[in-house]
Each structure stands twice: as structure tokens, then as C-alpha cells.
Amino acid sequence: MKFNEDCDKFSSAFNYYRSYYEDNYESQNIMRIKKQPVPVKSAHKKAIYDWHDEEIIKLIKCKQKHVKDGIGKDYINWIPRVPILIDFPTGGGKNTWIMEELLPYCIKHNEKILIIVNRVALARQVKLDAAKKQEIGFPKDFTNREMDATEVIGCITVRTYQKMINDMKYFHITDKKDPNYIDRDFKYIYSDETHYYVSDASFSSRTYALLVAFRKYHSHVIRIYGTSTPDEIVPWLIEVEKNLPILERSDRICNPALTSILYPIEMKCYTGKRNYSFVNAKYFRSKEEIIELILSDHSAKKWLIFVKSKADGAYFQEKLGDQAIFIDASSKEENGKNHETYEEIVKQQKFSKRILVTTTVLDNGVNIVDPMLLNVVLMTTDKTTFIQTLGRKRLRKEEKINLYIKNLNSQEINNYIFSITEKLDAYDLYNESIISFKDKYLAGTPEDYKIANNLFYFDDKGKIEWNPIAIKKLKSDKMNLEKISSKISSGEIDAFIKEQLSWIGLLKTFDEDNYVDFKKNEKHLNEFLTFLEQLVDKPLNKEEQEKLSEDFKDKCIKAFGKRMAKDGTSLDRNGRKYGIEIMQERLTTNNLPYTIESANGVWTIKKKVNMEVLE
Fold first, then answer.
1. Cα–Cα separations (whole angstroms), residue 330 to 336, 345, 489, 611
2. Which terminal Cβ of the chain has fewer Cβ within 10 Å, N or C?
3. What's the pLDDT tens digit per position in 18-44?
4. Are 571 and 563 spatial neighbours (Cβ–Cβ below 8 Å)?
5. How far apart (Å, rounded) are the C-alpha atoms in residues 569 and 561?
């Protein structure tokens, strides 16, 4: 299948779990499971893979805005042999449907639901909603630690994917008296934010193993997958759903006796329309530029800023001062940084400060409902993260927001490519020589060990396994970034802005006038170009070279912003001039038709022929 061509070891990893699955039956003198034939599509293939075209997919296009209205009462007739995909945009009411429709039905019929979520914040929010809906109260002194340890709230059980990974070793236990027994006698399982298996794969090595184990040990349950960003995860769901059998009773998963083995009939996909017309998109080139804009905003309108790292978050906090507050993963803990703000968001769906700076600790499921939040800033290269973080702002009728997205130059894009390549190098070495792999990544530097720990793990037999979802994701990301880098090198300096706009269907809205403080940037760019033009073909002595280094740096930073390291920190320190190599690098990175030649202690700026000056 075309989807798997770039993931050459997918089949061996899949077959490993499949043979383990079948061996459990054979050990009890049961016939081996024989996979039923799956319909094969025509030999005529599309150039681009589209999961909507898979034979197993039954697409139901919903005209309704909300999940509750789109699904109606269909859930009453759902069966385990037909897994369900709910593909509605953020704000489509997936969790609302659970609480207002599925939960009352299960209460009435004495059935149980398992809800699996990605983030601790979302788990707490779901538990609070479930308790309120069932009129179950928590003690006033109930701590977050106690809340996190409480999984069962009436007929709803709430678990995180991370907890499920830790519990995988107990999935095979069927004796309910065993203290390690994991309850799986549910009518429905709702796998919320299912894209977790892909989005966390590059730093959580067992996401694929969990997906297979989840499907294997819960085949008897009606499985509902929910996501607003389906394109990367659904092909994996199709692979696992098509190729693992259905066992209709949980007590037969590891002791099936003489029961028939079935396979899914189809995967029913309820899909809702996307509409991002509420977005007023603006663009910026550097962190300093967006910080300057925020500081110049003296209104009461609030800002939500998503950053890629703690270092970036601390930088924004420092520059924006007391009007801003920063939260990260540590904020989830009761003694963590700015925990009060984190709790306010989870419980009240708002924040008090005018500016909230956050990592992706809030990228899934947590809602912010505040009419004063009208500005959202995103800085990510990942489509799923982009859409999920944008969706944290919940809209009221006719409400619009300003979305600020960061452009990247070729140097910044190449930094991301380099980081991905480092990870893929580990995978390549693993395939070439397991001994060399162990020497470098298990007994090498802490940085190398971290790469290996994020992508590889030891299975129950002590064998090193890798995460095929992560490798596929890394290869796909690298390919996409290389395409963008190529466009930038060809002179399309807005390529990454256009890429981001295309993710939300707004490519046609691109307008260079939407760069923040566009006239100021245009002025600085023209000043820089004029500065260079005036020096073309003029030999510069040592004293003039010192002056050039100082003026070049000042004018270039004003026009294009500072150079950034891979960790997001600035490479341009105060008081340090540019050397000739850095100046040449900046000219090349920003596609300017100039070069600096050095001969016999003399520098000369030359203008390249057949290359237009950037306008």
C-alpha cells in the first residue's frame, strides 16, 4: 500500500505483534487466526495517498455544525465490528456529545464508557464535567493528586494515553481478582484527540505499541476515535483495524476457546465541515517584532501565545513583563510554576492576566472561553499542533480573532531539518548495525541517549524496538520542510506563511500587507538595500571593514530580525559585530543579490548578475 512505502520496517513490526497475538491462541491448541481477505483497490493508484479512498471507509458528510446533531441516535445501533471515526473541527462539540448524549444513554441502560485523553488538564476537565453531569461531588479538600488517581466517576472511566502505556503490561490479565487487572468491560470507548499516537510519537516511543495493544484488547468494545486533525493518524487506524480480528467477549481475548474470529466490516466516518473565516491572519518575522506589537497594544484585549520551548516562554515573559504569565508542563503540579493560572484555565476556562504564554501543555482539549481573548500567536512547523492550538480559543457567534503566525527563513527551516535528520540518523544506524547503534546511542552522550529513548524501547523480550509512527512522521516532516526550503531558496520568501494559511484553507487570503508593521519593515529593508547599493564595487580597507561589520549587523537585524539557534535563542549578541562569513550567510539566507569578496586584506561588495533585488 502506498502509505507504507516510506516506512520500510512497518510490516516487520506489525507482524511481530500479530504473531504474538496468534501465538496466544496456538498455546491453547486453538487454530491459528486466518486473516480474512480485504478488498483490494484497483491497480490504478492516485499519485497522492488519500485515506478517504480506502475501501474500509464509509464517509458520512454531516451538514450540521455540531457532533450531537450530525450523529443523532446512530450510536444506539453501533457494533464493535464497525469502528467509528468522529472527524469534526475543534469546537464541534465532541466532548459535549459524550456528556449530553452518550452518557445519559449509558446511565439509563446501565452501560459503561471509557474515555481516553491526552493531557492531564483535559482529564481533570472531563472528570469534573462527568461528576457534575451525574451529580457526583468531590470533597472540598480533594487535591489534584487525588483527582488524577481517581479514574472512575459513575459510569465513566477516564484514563490518559500515558497511563495506558504504563498499563499495557497488564492488559492480558483476565482474572478480575488480580490486583493488576485492568477493567475493559465497557460498552463504548471514546479515544479522544486520537492524533496523539502521531503527535507525541517523536518523543514517546511506545505510541504504536499502544495503538496495537489498545485495538487487540478492546476489540469487543465499540471503539470511537475522535480528532479534528485526522490526516496523519487515520491511515494508521485503518491498518490496525483492518488487520487485527474482533473478539466479541472480553474474557475470550486471552482465552478465546472455540469462538469465531471476525474482522471489521467498515470504519464509519462522521465528518464535519471546516470553516476558518473567523480568522484574520497576520504575519511576523521575529519574536522581537511580535513582542514590540504586543507592547504597543494598550487595549484590554487579551493575547494567547504558544511557544515551542521553555526558553522561548521565559523570553516572552521577561520582555512582556508583569502583564504576562507563563505556564508549562510543570504548572500541572500543585507546587509548579504559576499553578494557579493552570487551575483557573482547567476549571473556569479563562485566565486573568492580559497575556498568557504557554507551551503545548494546552494544545489538546482544553477550552478558553473569553470574549476578551481576540489575539492568538502561533509559532510551529507542525500542522496538527497549529490547528489544535488555534482551537483552544472557543468562539461565540459571529466572533472573529486575530491570528499571528511566524514566517521562517531558510536558515530557520534548515535548523529544523537538521534536528530531524539527527533523529533519522539513529534509525538508519539501527538498521545498519545494532552494535554500532548501541555504542553510539545507548552508551554515548546524553544527547544521543535522549534521541534513542524517544524513538526506541526494549520490549518484554529485551529486544530493541522502534516506533514506526515516529519514523514515518519524521520522514514526512523532513520532506515537507525541504520543499519549503527549496521554495524560499528560489525567491519565494513567504513560502512558509502560505503553507500555514493552506492548513486552514486561507491561502487565497495571503497579502504581504498583512505583515505586522509592514511599512516599518519595508522602510528598514529599503534602507538596508540602499546601504548595500552604495557600497557595491568599492574596496574597503580595515577601518572601513570594521564600520561595515557594525552597520551591516544593525541594518540587517532591523530588516530581517536576529539569527536564531535551533533552541530558539538569539545568535546575535549585543556588542558583537558580524564577520565576513556571517554577513555572507545573511545575504544568502535572505536571497539578496550580493556577495562580499576578500582579497589581499581588502573587502568588496559585489552585485550578482541576473538576480533581481528583493522588493
1. 5, 15, 40, 50
2. C
3. 443 344 333 332 222 333 333 333 334
4. yes
5. 12
